[in-house]
Amino acid sequence: MSPDDLNARLRATFVQELEDQLRAMDAGLLTLESRPDDAETIRTLFRAAHSVKGAARVAGIPVVEEACHALESLFAEVRDGARTLSGGDFSLLFAATDALKEAARRLRANESLEDSTLPALIDRLRAASGAPPDVPAAVETTIPPVVSTTPRPPQAIEEAAAVSRAGASGDTPGSESAPPVPIESTDAPTIESVRVSADKLDQLAAYTSDLLTTTGALADQPRELDRLQQELARWAGQWRQMAREQHDVRRWTEQSDLDRHLHQIVEQLSQLARAAHDHTRVLSRATSDILDGVRGLRMRRFADAVEALPRAVRDVAAATGKQARLVIEGDDVEVDRIVIDTLREPLLHLVRNAVDHGIESPEERVARGKPEQGTVQVVASLDQGRLRIIVEDDGRGLDTRAIARRLIAQGEEPPTEARALARRLLAGGVTTREEATSISGRGVGLDLVRAAMERIGGSVDVAWRAGEFTRFLLDSPPSPATL
What we know:
By secondary structure, the chain is of the alpha+beta class.
């Protein structure tokens, strides 16, 4: 392997590691924001930054290494009790993970990091870690907690240990070495894993499909052998009948010898047909097991589709001055990778929409007799071979009057029946926002949700009750094989 090839493979491995660690860091920051004294989460975040720093050094990406060293220093201060994180600190930390995500995207696309926002964020992180604990950050924001029933385990962090240790034998010149983090021993069994690209899984699935087709074709051959054996037995019977009708002793002897040979051939064909039946049955069963195994490799937990939602709820709540918590159920439901990848964007839009449009301000909720903090639920389940997902908020419901006014303004006759109104809403082009924002207001989101669901053979529906809730129901097959 050439040095260039080795470097490319090293960077590809690093990018995957970086993306895994950033997901864990986002989850950890969300947990820490709602539970500031969670010592284990602080240690997890420190280990994540330390691991990526070492991996970045090995991959030769100094700007990412410096950013993670700055993060590591800040987390070390929190871990050692030298400071507490303010709302402004969390905003800075989330901005840092966003910048690292953008760096990962660029590295994956073989783009330069020269104009990256990381250097500016490194300066801000260094300034933050050097400030006294009682000095607040420049931006102070009170962020409502985001609660999820599916916190992401820090397994990905531990998987980076080998890469981190390889590059962490010595710090960069002039940098401070962070104190070692004690790793608690555990008797839990080690789970070995290996990364396989999605393209290779797709290729394996295609090969397995070809194998299944070939096995089906082979299943016809034992039947053909049976037919030949029966045909030959019929001819042998006719030959014996002809032999009996002959009165020439010499001819009778020759025909008897031929009859014995025919009988042996018939018996051999019969044995061959039985063996072919047995072998085909075993091959068919093995092929079916292989196909099930390949499908199993493509299956992923629903948790992979919703991993970005807690951060989205947190960010939209902060931007709109609302309080919201996210509850996720059914994260262990397994569906095909294609379905998971397709669901990410629709779910992200629906959850952002729920906080932006559905959840009321704390003052409005209190006036309506509701708790200040709104709730967004995402519930997944498998029912009669279908994947069912509910995205529901306990907010104000759909404003049908505002929707009707907007349709009239667009020159449309608003439907009078609720179901027709729901169908029109899902067709897109309708928004109750007077002005578009970075969050919503362009009237295309629900249309994108509907189109995405239709691509995987699914559908979306909506139900609501004024002042109480809005509920979106997503239905799809769990895998392309069931389309």
